[in-house]
Amino acid sequence: QGARGEPDLAAQHAPPGLGLVRHPGGLDGIAVVEGEVRKLAPQLPAPDDKSGVKIDYVAKRLAVALAPLGFKRKGRLLTLAAGEGDAAHWRIVHVQAGKWNEGPRGEFYVNLAVQYPALMRLAAQRQGMAWLLEHLDKPDEAAGQARARLGHLMSALPPEHPCARPGNVDEWKFSRHVDIEPLADGVVRGLLDVGVPWLEQHG
Questions:
Q1: How high is the mean pLDDT in each 10-residue block of the chain (203 residues)?
Q2: How far apart are CA 197 and CA 119, in angstroms?
Q3: Residues 58/76, Cβ–Cβ less than 8 Å
Q4: Are 77 and 147 in contact (CB under 8 A)?
Q5: What is the pTM of this model?
Q6: DSSP string covering 87-100, please?
Q7: Alpha helix (H) residue ranges in the chain
Q8: Which letter, b or e, does each residue of 133-157 get, where b requires 16 or more Cβ atoms within 10 Å of its Cβ?
């Protein structure tokens, strides 16, 4: 179930014929990868674990939630190839660490992007932009033609929305005193309810 008691977007968008299984790693325990049901529950970090371990945990949680949609994870980068011909593009989710993270405390951002190689080819025709041709087959959040931060999108929601965040904040902060599991739950909810529709709208 989603944040409003509705079916999760992940379940709604799962390719037909794929079985779904519950497990403790995702918000609602659903994970399917390449047509196979797998146990993908990431290990919960300890309060004193380093910030990188905690951010990796969040990225893995997001990967579990997005797996039924076809997203693939490489480190903290989650990508989905969609469209054909000139409409071919990548839908990108990137979990970015804060610059000043230290020990068990820090912050992270969830960046969203849609990247069209066809538009990059056009841009590469401009003087001094030929270097773009070297990146046509590499999904890169920074090269996206449409970009947003999930935290900002959630902060812009009406206060009554279940995914709304107070204040105009882009980042999620954590420390040894912050339980990373419910924090990750909120990020997963926001990505499924707000981030995925944004990617689909711009894709």
A1: 40 38 42 49 94 98 97 97 95 97 97 95 90 86 95 96 92 97 97 98 94
A2: 22
A3: no
A4: no
A5: 0.79
A6: G-EEEEEEEEE-TT
A7: 9-13, 51-66, 117-124, 150-155, 180-190, 196-202
A8: eeeeeebebebbebbbbbbbbbbee
